[in-house]
Every structure is written in structure tokens, then in C-alpha cells.
Design a protein that fits this description.
alpha/beta; Rossmann fold; 12 strands; Arc Repressor Mutant, subunit A; single chain
């Protein structure tokens, strides 16, 4: 499979409650040089997402308990609070003859839809296309400032390979600063771009408190004490010690 991941085998999570269909997908994807984890429910899938870190998920809509559509929503809502890539490709499969599952799946954030019964070569080809798109998106979404590497697609940031544990707003603040690290961003700009409202004096503490926590987390990861620099009376910029 030409997946754009180099020599690494693509990690595929299969979520299918039908035992024979699950075994069929697992054996065929493994034969096509994929590292496959196959489970029978959304609840098991959430455990696998936290432990196996898949590159792509193939999700049956009609799962027992938590539905496949709800699982897609959970994947997309994971953000920085869960270890998986919330932007990973998700392909849904469904035996519904109406096509409504496709519409609902896309609304939840699925990337592709394959109706049952499907021909395996078509599903395999769609998996390859989705993986190549994801790799390309990740490369385009990467920001680098000194030893800091931000993957906007996966919503992750690392310092020298060390993963940062950031809240959603801390990550958004870091991205805003990293887009143009040579420029000082005013608190009003940050309030507008990160928090979505116009800056009023009483709200600047929101920026200050988040910037302080972000600075501390970067310093703890080895980025240096001045990485998020406060320019008094103006705002903030990234000022790495190693560049």
C-alpha cells in the first residue's frame, strides 16, 4: 500500500461487531502490510484508541451499545485531552440501503463511506487514499520554531520530541504565536483570534493566565523560561532561547 508513511506499517483500527466480517478485514488488511487492531464495539475502540494510536479507523455504523456515529464524534472531540489523533481519517461502513448513514457520518466528521456489501479492493484503495491525504495534511500543517514542533492537524506540540500536555486554548494560543514568531501579538488580537471576542481591559487576564501556564509547560519540557515572552504594554510573542 502506498500510504506515504515511509517504511512504517499503517496502523488500522477496525471496529466491526460481526465476527466474520471483522476477521475478514483483519486478515486481508494484515496481508496488505497493515498493523491491524480489530474490536467489536465502540467501547473497545475507545480503549484501543488510547493504547494503539491508529493512523486510520474503519468503523461500522451499526454497533451494539454506543453507535458507530457516536464513536466518530468521540474521535473528533478527543482533541488534546486524549492521546489519539482527533484528525485521523475515519472511514465508515454501513449496511443501510437508504444512504442516510453516509450523510450522518459526514456530519459527524467521517472522511469516507463504503456501503455493505463492499468489494475489499475498493475499501483497501480508499484506505490508501485517506492515509495519503492525512500525511499530506500533516506535513502542510506543521509549524517549527526552534526546538518546538507543532502539528496542527493532529493538535499536538513537542519540544525536542517531548509531547506537551496542553488544553485546547493553550494549544490555540501557541499556534497563534507560532504562525509569526517574529511579531508581537497584542492581547486584543489574541482575544479575538483565540477566544473569539473583542479585547476589553477586564479580559486581558484571560490571556495572561493562559500565557503563564503555557510558558511554564514549555519550560518544563526544556524550551527555556522565555519561550513565551511578554512585551510589556503590548502583548506576547515567541522568543525561543535556542534560535
Amino acid at each position: 500500500m502506498d500510504h506515504g508513511l515511509g517504511d512504517a506499517l499503517p496502523a488500522v483500527l477496525v471496529v466491526e461487531d460481526d465476527r466474520s466480517a471483522r476477521a475478514f478485514l483483519q486478515s486481508n488488511l494484515a496481508a496488505d502490510r497493515c498493523d491491524v487492531v480489530a474490536v467489536g464495539s465502540a467501547e473497545e475502540a475507545l480503549i484501543a484508541l488510547r493504547t494503539s494510536r491508529p493512523d486510520i479507523a474503519i468503523v461500522d455504523v451499526g454497533l451494539p451499545g454506543m453507535s458507530g456515529l457516536d464513536l466518530v464524534s468521540a474521535i473528533r472531540d478527543g482533541g488534546v485531552d486524549e492521546p489519539w489523533d482527533s484528525g485521523m481519517p475515519v472511514l465508515i461502513v454501513s449496511g443501510s440501503a437508504t444512504g442516510h448513514d453516509a450523510v450522518r457520518g459526514f456530519a459527524r466528521g467521517a472522511d469516507d463511506y463504503v456501503p455493505k456489501p463492499f468489494h475489499y479492493p475498493e475499501l483497501h484503495a480508499r484506505v490508501g487514499v485517506a492515509l495519503r491525504r492525512a500525511v499530506g495534511a500533516t506535513r502542510r500543517e506543521e509549524l517549527r520554531v526552534g526546538r518546538l514542533v507543532i502539528d496542527r492537524h493532529a493538535r499536538r506540540a513537542r519540544v525536542g520530541g517531548r509531547l506537551l500536555s496542553l488544553s485546547a486554548k493553550e494549544f490555540a494560543l501557541l499556534v497563534a504565536l507560532a504562525k509569526d514568531p517574529s511579531r508581537v501579538l497584542s492581547k486584543a488580537e489574541l482575544l479575538r483570534d483565540v477566544w473569539g471576542y473583542s479585547g476589553r481591559a477586564g479580559r486581558t487576564r484571560t490571556v495572561d493566565s493562559h500565557a503563564s501556564r503555557l510558558r511554564r509547560k514549555l519550560a518544563d519540557a526544556g524550551a527555556g523560561e522565555r519561550y513565551v515572552s511578554n512585551v510589556w504594554g503590548v502583548g506576547y510573542r515567541l522568543f525561543p532561547d535556542d534560535v
